[in-house]
């Protein structure tokens, strides 16, 4: 499940006095399925949810798009930072305040159309294929947890 989350120090901003608006730092990776920028305008279903939250809370925020690892690091280490679309995992559970579910995550395997021998229809078939995944990502941790790969010989991490 993907969530909009907020870091714990967020609550310190409620104590500021004599301010008519409160600014949040919002970080995100660009994804056409979730949130992205087009001609200077933020778009996507997660942006709609963010805008509704901002309106309800009367906070102001600008979304900064960046690679996932940088967005995660900033959200984890910078007070008053909200990150869009992060998988909720046991390792992350206590480090963030989880606001709202924005979508259900799904694992998919893709291959080149020109290589029909690489096409995967079942998980059993996928176990015999070379799988590329981002090192340290939720998908990587899930694959090596024993539920999918017991050996790393078919797992390529980058």
From TrEMBL:
Top-level lineage group: Bacteria
What is this protein's record name?
Answer: Transporter substrate-binding domain-containing protein
